[in-house]
Structure formats: C-alpha cells, structure tokens
Design brief:
CATH class: Mainly Alpha
Structural class: mainly alpha
Number of strands: 0
Amino acid sequence: MPEAVRLSLIAMSLVFIAVGGYYRIQSQRSGERLDRTKEGWPILISIRLMGLLTIGSTAAWLWKPEWFQWASRPTSLGIRWIGVAGFACAIAWLMWMFKTLGSNLTDTVVTRKSAFFVDHGPYGFVRNPMYTGVLMAAISLGFALGTWLLPAAGCVVFTLFALRTQIEEKYLIERFGDQYRDYMRRVGRFFPRLPA
C-alpha cells in the first residue's frame, strides 16, 4: 500500500476519533442512564462485537498492512485515491451528523429524556445518516486498502443496524408521534428518496 494513502487514512481516522469522542462525551454530560437491552441482546452483542472487530482490524491493517496480504488484491493508485476521497466524504458526513444530533447522540435505540426532534442537516436527506456513513466508510476503505474484507464487514454491520432500526423507529414514534411518522413519509431510511 502506498505510504501516502496509509498516512492519509490514519490522519482522517484520528480526526474522526477526536471529533466523535468529543460529541460522545458531550452527549453524556446529563448523566442519564440508558437501557441498552431495549434493542435486544442478539443485536446489542452482535453490533458491538462486529464493530470492534471491524475497527480493530482496520487499525491493525493501517499499522501493519503486511498482516492482511491474504485479503488484499492488486489495486491501481487511482482507485486507492478514489477510496481515500470517499473515506474523507464519509468522515465529513459523520462529523456533520454528530454536530447536528448534538446532545441527542446515543449508542442505543432509546432516546434521552431531553431529546429533541431533528430533521435538518444530514437528517434532511436520510433518517439514519450514521448507518449510511458507516457503509460509505467501509466501502471507501475497501477501495483505498485494496480489499474485499472491510466492505464485507461493513455490510454485515450495516445489516445489523438495519435490523436495529425497526426497534429504534418504534421508540422514536412513541416519543415524537405524528411528527416522526410524517418524517418517515418524507425522508428515506438509509438513502435519499428520489423526487416523485
């Protein structure tokens, strides 16, 4: 893997970790305890386990690319840089999502007591921009690193998120009622709706 590609991905990942960590800490300042079991134990465990495996293997890949030669394929420099650009877009999208969601941010399906309705920023395009951003990042990393492994893992994580969304939206309807039902009619779940 070209060193410039590797260093670009590392730099963007570190920025994302810093920004995401900041918003995660800010969202937990209320001290409110959230019941993560509401999403169901299979989804709860699967998402976190697959997320850790995917993030861990990506970090290991960027640190020691030679460990993953078995999952690599020859990839042109142009395709790798397209992947880097896609990853930059995914990171920017996710950071926009963090800023827009603000104190509503949680890592589970339960909304905070102080939650407010959000339908602007990336939420004006899709109802679940975090899940869309994770899929974009995984596919982009596949191009940048020249592998099938990370897009495959990202698709598994995205599928688990899609399953969890059904539970999550039930809680959002309970909380916001017709306002959220109208939002569901207007805005696509993971991908923007095409104009009628």
